[in-house]
Design a protein that fits this description.
Blueprint (H helix, E strand, L loop, with lengths): L1 H17 L5 H32 L23 H39 L5 H10 L9 H11 L6 H24 L3 H9 L4 H9 L4 H17 L2 H6 L9 H4 L12 H32 L5
Helix pairs in contact: 2-12, 3-6, 3-9, 3-12, 4-6, 6-9, 9-12
């Protein structure tokens, strides 16, 4: 056993000797990468830092000249009133976001399955049409969408947002699932067809159990997109307080007269951003795994 340890030690020494040392150019680019990453980290973390430190300065303890200065003492006086305003809109947002995310994910998985494994004449043209929907700006469909909502009888309800995000979520969900399903070997589908399984049974018994990474990606994407949306929320609801969601509720936290209560604004912004922060903190690695799992064919 001692001889094995000695041989391993000698091998590690040989490996360390054989490691190529970085020359001046290599060291420069290494330092440059670390500096660039540090700058990007500061840029990304700075808004969160400002929101956090100013949310614990109280309602009137925040001013522009000391926005970057940490508080001398913690004051959570702005959290209670702000939460009372945001509680109902955030619950309403969670309800419509979950509905739109789940519905668009299910429709996208079915579309992706058909385009990836059951191609038919003209499927490429139809798939291209689906992708074209991702590039249509929101502003271009506002009036037709409002007219359709009135015709469908869902105007003045939260379902106008559910419908809008489902429609805009279908193209990207279809693309993600189609690329993901293309990585599944066709031999599985052929074997199931030989055994007499049809299109629906193959999808239910073979494809769906393998789709968990794809669903994670799509649900996270749709959740973030719908939660952070402001244009649909303010336009389709007409700015009504009864239909306000998380992003539009921030408009009602502005103070009165010429006085702006930055403590309330910072606290509200932090509270509204917490759900998406938690999603990426705890599910971010699954999001990356799901994206990469369909990038290569096995």
């Amino acid at each position: 056993m001692s001889s094995d340890l000695a041989s391993r030690a000698s091998q590690s020494k040989d490996i360390s000797r054989n490691k190529k040392k970085l020359d001046g150019k290599g060291q420069f680019w290494l330092v440059f990468r670390y500096i660039a990453l540090s700058i990007l980290f500061v840029i990304a973390a700075l808004p969160i830092y400002i929101m956090v430190i100013n949310s614990v300065k109280g309602i009137t303890g925040v001013n522009q000249s000391a926005a970057f200065v940490p508080p001398t003492s913690l004051n959570f006086g702005a959290w209670g009133p702000t939460w009372e305003i945001l509680r109902e809109p955030m619950f309403r947002t969670l309800v419509f976001v979950l509905q739109s995310s789940i519905i668009s994910a299910i429709i996208g998985s079915i579309n992706g399955y058909v385009f990836a494994k059951w191609r038919f004449k003209g499927s490429t043209i139809i798939f291209t049409t689906f992708l074209f929907g991702m590039f249509i700006p929101y502003q271009a469909i506002m009036i037709p969408l409002t007219q359709f909502n009135r015709w469908a009888g869902i105007g003045g309800t939260i379902y106008v947002l559910v419908f809008a995000h489902v429609i805009y979520g279908i193209p990207i969900c279809t693309l993600i699932f189609r690329n993901y399903y293309q990585a599944i070997p066709n031999e599985l589908i052929e074997a199931a067809r030989v055994d007499g399984a049809g299109m629906v049974r193959i999808f239910r018994t073979i494809i769906l159990p393998l789709s968990i990474p794809g669903f994670v990606v799509v649900l996270i994407w749709q959740f973030t997109s719908a939660w952070n949306d402001f244009l649909f929320a303010i336009f389709l609801t007409g700015g009504s307080p009864k239909l306000s969601v998380a992003t539009t509720a921030l408009n009602f936290i502005t103070g009165s007269g010429n006085q702006v209560y930055y403590g309330n604004n910072m606290t509200a912004s932090l509270i509204v951003s917490i759900p998406t922060l938690l999603v990426y903190m705890f599910l971010g690695r699954y999001f990356l795994r799901g994206l990469l799992s369909g990038s290569l064919k096995g």
